[in-house]
Amino acid sequence: TGWHNIPLRAWLAERTGLAVLLANDANAAALGEWRYGAGQGCRHFVYVTVSTGIGGGVIADGRLLLGHRGMAGEVGHMVVDRSGPRCNCGAQGCWEAVASGTALAREASAAQAMTASSLLHRWAQDRPLTAREVVDAARQGDALARQLVHDEGAWLGIGMAGLLHLYAPERIAVGGGLSNALDLFLPQI
Predict the structure, then answer these.
(1) Which residues are marked as active site?
(2) With 0-12 CB in 10 A as exposed, 13-18 as middle and 19+ as buried, what is 44?
(3) 20 to 30 A from 163, CA-CA: which of 22, 43, 77, 116?
């Protein structure tokens, strides 16, 4: 509330004396990685952020792909499992709904109840688990957590294969909170 018709860009430019552009966070991250990070030297690059949701930004022919109304690159909303869970966007089986940190935590919270020997079961204590706890338990060798991480990697791989076919990038970079566990997901990706 209170953020309607606010000329934020002009306000920031006036106060800082700098040129200001406003962008979606994943698009801004894609531009930053393309210009200064993992995408340097690429004309075709995709950045994916895997955190509470899944977002992305696409560089095609050396330009940020925006599409109609700036909605291009919303990669988390590709449907990868039409019988999967409902996504916050209203669609069913979006990549975000099956492979985000929120999805991993949801799966862990449901699975731990059936596996009393798991660290996740002990840690849950009648509360939802976090994706970070799943990763921590997997790093400690917990069988349930390792299976959940295996499945997460497979879902990430399905989505990334789709990105390869859609955008034919030279490189895909992954960021966001779950990127800290990329080493665990890579075998399935």
Answers:
(1) 25
(2) middle
(3) 22
The neighbouring-strand residues paired with 172 are 46
- pLDDT tens track for 159-171: 999 999 999 999 9
Q: Which amino acid is at 64?
A: L
Q: What is the pLDDT of residue 175?
A: 97
In this structure, which amino acid lies at residue 141?
Answer: G
**How confident is the model over 100-112, as pLDDT tens digits?**
999 999 999 999 9
Residue 173 near residue 48, CB atoms below 8 Å: yes
pTM exceeds 0.70, yes or no: yes
Contacts of 157 (CB under 8 A, 6+ apart): 188, 189
**C-alpha span between 21 and 181 (Å, rounded):** 32
Residue 129, both tokens = 């688990």
CB 161, CB 189: distance < 8 Å: no
